[in-house]
Amino acid sequence: MAAPMSVYGVENLIFLILDNPDLAVRFRDAILNSILGIARVLDEEAGHTPEAAPHGWGWADDNCALLTPEMYELFGYPILKGVFDRYCPDAKHSRHQHSDSAMSHLLPLLGKLNFTGTNFGPTVTVSEIREHLPNAVIDGQLAPFTLCRNEEENIVAEFLRDFDQAREKRGLRFSTAGSINNGSRLTGMRLIMAAIQRYGRYE
Q1: Counting CB atoms within 10 angstroms of each CB, which of 30, 95, 147, 176 has the fewest?
Q2: Which helix (H) or strand (E) holds 153?
Q3: What strand order describes the sheet that includes 117-120?
């Protein structure tokens, strides 16, 4: 989890979960309660009641990829579920996860949270995401370094790969898997749009 690891340290959090899971659970619950408390205050200041407050939530969390599924189920998953249960309890509400890291090992767990949108790292394939997150719109999966290096042939090849993997269930917005890196060219963006326009149509 990005915030806890920023506060406590990456290695420290991993060791805490392994060595003292009871204390890790207390830390987890403190984070969840703090998020919900801050969100409640923001809602109140905006004039929203719990019943009328806007619904939807998105996470930007790269470091969660460093946890094993068992660690994530203990620590990260309950935080996401607790927030989602409060702010996006219905299937129609937006539930988004950005994590431009190697997230494949956590997809089975994330699949239980009914995400409606994802933006994962370039090593996570459209097929893998769709297998576990059938209702999510997939933002990606162009590798940012492919774009910033202006590898024109690979840009088109990655689009064709993802377009084909999304054929059965659709729901792909072709974009970079993570941030757009320095050095990315406007010509690369134009190439992406041209490839989508020429090849991005299902019969």
Answers
A1: 30
A2: helix 152-165
A3: 57-60, 95-99, 117-120, 137-139, 172-173
